[in-house]
C-alpha cells in the first residue's frame, strides 16, 4: 500500500533538466510521451496524404518530394503504418495518459520504478529518431510494408530501401520493444503494489483496468516481436536463414536456404494481433470513464466490463492466424482460428451494450469529451461489424488483399483509438494544464473528424468488394477499376479536409495552454481520485496526504446524497448503485 513515507521518498527537483528533460515525475513523462505522439501523428498523416494524392493523381509533382515513384509509394505505406501503430496508437494512450493518470487514479505518489519510467520514454524517443533516419539514408526508407514480410524484408538486394533503411527500421522497432517492456513492468507493478488504502481491484476506475491489461499484453507480445526482429537482422547481415527459403532475386540464387517466411508471419502476428488491443483497450477504458461521467450514471455492469476486458486480452493471443488464411495453412487450423476470432466478438459486444446501457436514460451532458466517447463507440461498432467477414476464410481469401481490410482496421483500430486519445485530451486537459480547452472549437473539431473519417474509410469497404487491391501504387490504368476513380477522388478530398481540420485541435491545444480560462479542481464533477487533488497536481500528487478510498469509481445519482456525485474519498455510503 502507498504510505506517507513513500510520498516523501523523493523531493521535487529544482533544475530545468531534472524537472523537464530527464524527469522522474510520471506526470512530466506522460506529457513527454503525449507530445512525442503528437509529433509522430503529424508525420504519419502527411505521409498518408502523399499516398492518397498519388493514388488519384499518379503523375502529380508534389512540393518537397517531387514525383512519387512506385517504390517511393511503398516506402510511404511502410513508414505511415509503422509510425502510426507504434509511435501514435501505442505511445499516446498507454505511455501518455497511462503514465500521467494511472498513479493518481490509484492514489499512488508516482510509478513504482521512476528511473525505469524515464528510461522507457527516452528509449522510445531514440526508437522514433532511428525510424525517421531511414528516410535519409542511401536507398531511402524500406518498402516491405509495416508487417515486414520476408523474403522481401530479409534480402538486402530485394529493392531500394531494403539496405540500410530496412536495418534502421528493424532496429527502431527492436528499441521500441525494449522500451515497451520496461513500461509494461512498471505499469503492472504500480497497479498491484501502490494502490491507496481502500482501493481494491474492484474499486479501480476502468481506465486503470485498461492500462493494466494493456501492460500485460505488452509484456507478453513485445518480447516475441523483439526476438523476431533480432532474427531478421541476423538473416539480413549475418547470413543465417531463419526466414529465407531457397530464393532467386533478379536472376541470382541467394546464399540463404532452409528458412520459412511463414515463421516470421507467425511471430509477427502473435505480436500483431494483441497490438490491436494494446491500441484499443485504453480507448475502451477512457470511453467507459467519459460515458459514465457525462451521463451522470454509474457504469452499467462494472464487473462485466472488467471481465470483458480480461476476456479480450486473453482471446487476443489466440486469433493471430486469421491474418494468415492466405498463407496456405491447414483448413483445420483456419477453422480453429475462425471460431476463436468470432468468439472475441462476445466480450466486445458486452462492452458495447454496457456503454449503451450507461447512456440510456442518463442526464447526458454533451461536452466535447462526451462527443468523442460516443464517436469512439460508433467507430468501434462500425469497424467491428466488418470483422466477422474477414474471420471467415472463404470470405477473407477474396477480400484480404483489397481496400476492404484497409477500411476495416483503420475504423476499429486506427481512428477509434485516436478518438479515445482526443476524448482523453479534452477530458483531462484541465487537470494537466490547469486551464479549459475551448468548447466551441472542440465541437467543430469533433464533427469534422467524425464525418471525415467515415467519409474516408467507409467507402474503402465498397472499393474492396469491387476488387481494388491494396498496396498498389497506381491503378488508374486498369480498365476494371475505372469506375472506382470518382470514389477514390472523393476519399482523397475527404482526407485533405479531415487532416486540415486537425489544425483546429492543435490551435485549441496550444492556445488553451497559454490563454484558456482557469480550471477548477473538478470541472466535470467527476468522482475518481485525480479530481480530489489540486490542479495541476503537486509533485507527489496529493500534497503529502495519502488518500483513503471509501467508494467505487462511478457513484453518480446516489439517492439521498447532497449532490449527484460522490467522490471516491468521501465518507462511505451505505447503498451504492454501482455494486
Backbone structural class: mainly alpha
Radius of gyration: 24 Å
Overall pLDDT score: 93
Instruction: Show unreliable segments.
Output: 1-9, 575-579
Strand line-up in the sheet with most strands: 1-2
**Helical stretch tally:** 18
Written as H for each helix and E for each strand, in order along the chain, the element string is HHHEEHHHHHEEHHHHHHHHHH
Please give the share of residues in helix. 55-70%
Describe the main β-sheet briefly.
Answer: 2 strands, antiparallel
Number of strands: 4
Percentage of residues in DSSP E strands: under 5%
Span from first to last CA?
Answer: 24 Å
Q: Shape, please? A: globular
Which features characterize this protein?
single chain; 579 residues; 61% helix; mainly alpha; globular
Describe it:
The protein is mainly α. The protein is built from 18 helices and four strands. It starts with a helix and ends in a 64-residue tail after the last helix.
Amino acid at each position: 500500500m502507498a504510505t506517507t513515507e513513500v510520498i516523501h521518498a523523493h523531493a521535487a527537483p529544482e533544475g530545468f533538466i531534472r524537472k523537464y528533460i530527464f524527469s522522474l515525475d510520471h506526470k512530466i513523462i506522460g506529457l513527454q510521451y503525449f507530445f512525442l505522439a503528437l509529433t509522430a501523428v503529424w508525420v504519419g498523416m502527411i505521409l498518408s496524404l502523399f499516398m492518397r494524392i498519388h493514388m488519384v493523381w499518379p503523375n502529380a509533382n508534389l512540393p518537397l518530394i517531387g514525383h512519387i515513384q512506385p517504390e517511393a509509394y511503398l516506402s510511404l505505406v511502410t513508414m505511415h503504418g509503422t509510425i502510426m501503430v507504434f509511435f501514435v496508437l501505442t505511445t499516446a494512450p498507454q505511455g501518455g495518459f497511462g503514465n500521467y493518470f494511472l498513479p493518481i487514479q490509484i492514489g499512488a505518489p508516482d510509478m513504482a520504478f521512476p528511473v525505469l519510467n524515464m528510461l522507457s520514454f527516452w528509449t522510445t524517443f531514440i526508437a522514433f529518431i532511428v525510424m525517421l533516419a531511414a528516410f535519409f539514408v542511401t536507398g531511402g526508407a524500406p518498402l516491405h510494408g509495416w508487417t515486414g514480410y520476408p523474403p522481401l524484408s530479409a534480402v538486402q538486394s530485394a529493392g531500394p530501401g531494403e539496405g540500410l533503411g530496412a536495418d534502421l527500421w528493424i532496429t527502431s522497432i527492436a528499441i521500441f520493444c525494449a522500451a515497451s517492456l520496461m513500461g509494461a513492468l512498471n505499469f503492472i507493478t504500480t497497479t498491484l503494489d501502490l494502490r491507496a488504502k481502500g482501493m481494491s481491484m474492484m474499486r479501480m476506475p476502468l481506465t486503470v483496468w485498461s492500462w493494466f491489461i494493456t501492460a500485460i499484453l505488452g509484456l507478453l507480445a513485445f518480447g516475441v516481436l523483439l526476438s523476431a526482429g533480432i532474427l531478421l537482422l541476423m538473416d539480413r547481415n549475418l547470413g543465417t536463414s531463419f526466414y529465407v527459403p531457397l530464393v532467386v532475386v533478379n536472376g541470382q540464387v541467394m546464399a540463404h536456404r532452409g528458412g520459412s517466411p511463414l515463421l516470421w508471419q507467425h511471430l509477427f502476428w502473435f505480436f500483431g494481433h494483441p497490438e490491436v488491443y494494446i491500441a484499443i483497450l485504453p480507448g475502451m477504458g477512457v470511453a467507459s470513464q467519459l460515458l459514465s461521467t457525462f451521463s451522470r450514471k454509474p457504469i452499467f455492469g462494472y464487473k462485466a466490463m472488467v471481465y470483458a476486458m480480461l476476456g479480450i486480452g486473453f482471446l487476443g493471443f489466440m486469433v493471430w492466424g486469421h491474418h494468415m488464411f492466405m498463407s496456405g495453412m491447414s483448413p483445420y487450423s483456419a477453422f480453429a482460428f475462425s471460431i476463436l476470432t468470432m468468439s472475441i466478438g462476445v466480450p466486445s459486444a458486452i462492452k458495447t451494450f454496457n456503454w449503451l446501457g450507461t447512456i440510456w436514460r442518463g442526464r447526458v451532458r454533451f461536452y466535447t469529451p462526451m462527443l468523442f466517447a460516443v464517436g469512439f463507440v460508433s467507430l468501434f461498432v462500425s469497424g467491428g461489424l466488418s470483422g466477422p467477414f474477414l474471420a471467415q476464410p472463404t470470405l477473407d481469401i477474396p477480400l484480404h488483399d483489397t481496400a476492404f481490410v484497409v477500411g476495416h482496421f483503420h475504423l476499429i483500430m486506427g481512428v477509434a483509438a485516436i478518438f479515445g486519445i482526443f476524448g482523453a485530451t479534452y477530458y483531462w486537459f484541465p487537470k494537466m494544464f490547469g486551464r479549459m480547452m475551448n468548447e466551441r472549437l472542440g465541437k467543430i473539431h469533433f464533427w469534422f473528424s467524425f464525418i471525415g473519417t467515415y467519409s474516408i474509410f467507409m467507402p474503402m469497404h465498397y472499393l474492396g468488394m469491387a476488387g481494388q487491391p491494396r498496396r498498389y501504387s497506381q491503378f488508374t490504368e486498369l480498365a476494371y477499376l475505372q469506375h472506382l476513380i470518382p470514389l477514390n477522388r472523393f476519399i482523397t478530398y475527404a482526407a485533405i479536409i479531415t487532416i486540415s481540420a486537425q489544425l483546429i485541435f492543435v490551435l485549441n491545444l496550444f492556445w488553451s495552454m497559454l490563454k484558456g480560462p482557469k480550471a477548477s479542481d473538478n470541472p466535470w464533477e467527476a468522482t475518481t481520485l485525480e479530481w480530489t487533488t489540486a490542479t495541476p497536481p503537486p509533485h507527489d500528487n496529493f500534497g503529502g496526504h495519502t488518500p483513503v478510498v471509501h467508494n467505487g469509481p462511478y457513484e453518480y445519482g446516489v439517492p439521498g446524497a447532497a449532490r449527484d456525485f460522490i467522490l471516491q474519498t468521501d465518507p462511505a455510503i451505505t447503498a451504492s448503485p454501482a455494486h
